[in-house]
Amino acid sequence: MVRKLVSHVESSSNLAKLATESNIEEFIHLTTKISQLLAKENGRVGSLLITGKLIEAPPMGEAIVVGDLHGDLGSLVHILEESKFLAKMRNKKDVLLIFLGDYGDRGSHSPEVYYAVLKLKEQFPERVVLMRGNHEGPYDLLASPHDLPIHMNQKFGDSGSEAYSKLRELFNHLYTAVLIEERYVFLHGGAPSQATNVNDIAYAHTKHPQERHLEEILWSDPWEGIKGTIASPRGAGRLFGENVTNTLLKMLNVKALIRGHESSEEGYKTDHSEKVITLFSRKGPPYPNRFGAYLHINIAKKVEKPRQLLQEIHKF
Ligand SMILES: [Mn+2]
């Protein structure tokens, strides 16, 4: 008989407990359920408008934006606690919880972090946005080293590989970008330098690998002092100059690009005259950053200068 799965997230510590104690059936059930949910999401979902793998959110309420977690369950719990996301959900506040991708690999709690973010999506489907990082890449373009399958086997024994293959399916359903009109674009890595319209981003996943948009969105990094793009030492994506950022922001009619993908000492950094803001929410080895950071913004507020956002970054 299949056990009924009714566990409900009540607090961030209870979420961590559920993630830590989840068994293989629950993990597979939850991953499959969220893959199916994401595959179906199209058009209006709550206040969101979904086209391909692009989400447009109205400039209303608040957004909590989480950078790379890479298996760091403690930082996720800290962010949920400090931002009071669950309390705000209970009080029916208008809040979006946006994850910039790279949930697993490197850290020791990769399965638990996937479980936790999927559980949040299950409970608050119109409020939680799961974006795709280069560690959730398409089959031909996945980050390396990729130690998630090892951690899945450590947690679940031999059945870990079945759960892992469900996660690989899920990766194809995660979102490529989020747009908030006249304000922000959120994506994992960098500006797609050859994109000429918003559909190049919305349908980047269907054009990959013939076109480079998805690769650049997942892998690229901003670079100072260059025009256009140059090869990236990562071996995928490009390093892009400020003029590429300006072209993207103009094309999308927004003021700032908010992304993850790179660790930095303070947990965040800015590039391209503060029009690119990088958030990294993981702490601990193998990364050298002293702080993790996330963003908690009032998205109703107009952006006069992107640097105003720096006041809304929370370091921990
Ligand atoms: Mn990354």
Q: Which whole number gives the mean pLDDT?
A: 95
What is the fold-level CATH name, i.e. the topology?
Purple Acid Phosphatase, chain A, domain 2
Shape: globular
Low-pLDDT runs: none
Radius of gyration: 18 Å
CATH class: Alpha Beta
State the end-to-end distance.
Answer: 45 Å
By CATH, the superfamily comes out as Metallo-dependent phosphatases
**What percent strand?**
15-25%
As laid out across the biggest beta sheet, the strand order is 1-2-3-7-8-12-14-13
**Largest sheet, described in full?**
8 strands, mixed
State the helical fraction: 25-40%
Describe the structure.
- With 316 residues, the chain is α/β, with parallel strands linked by helices.
- It has one domain (46-315): Metallo-dependent phosphatases (Purple Acid Phosphatase, chain A, domain 2).
- It is 34% helix and 19% strand.
- The chain has 11 helices and 16 strands.
- The strands form 3 sheets. An 8-stranded mixed β-sheet has the order 1-2-3-7-8-12-14-13. A 5-stranded mixed β-sheet has the order 6-5-4-15-16.
- Strand 7 (177-180) and strand 8 (184-186) form a beta hairpin.
- Helix 1 (12-21) packs antiparallel against helix 3 (73-83) and helix 6 packs across helix 7 (160-171).
- The longest helix has 17 residues, at 24-40.
- The protein starts with 11 loop residues before the first helix and ends with a strand.
- The mean pLDDT is 95.
- The structure holds manganese (II) ion.
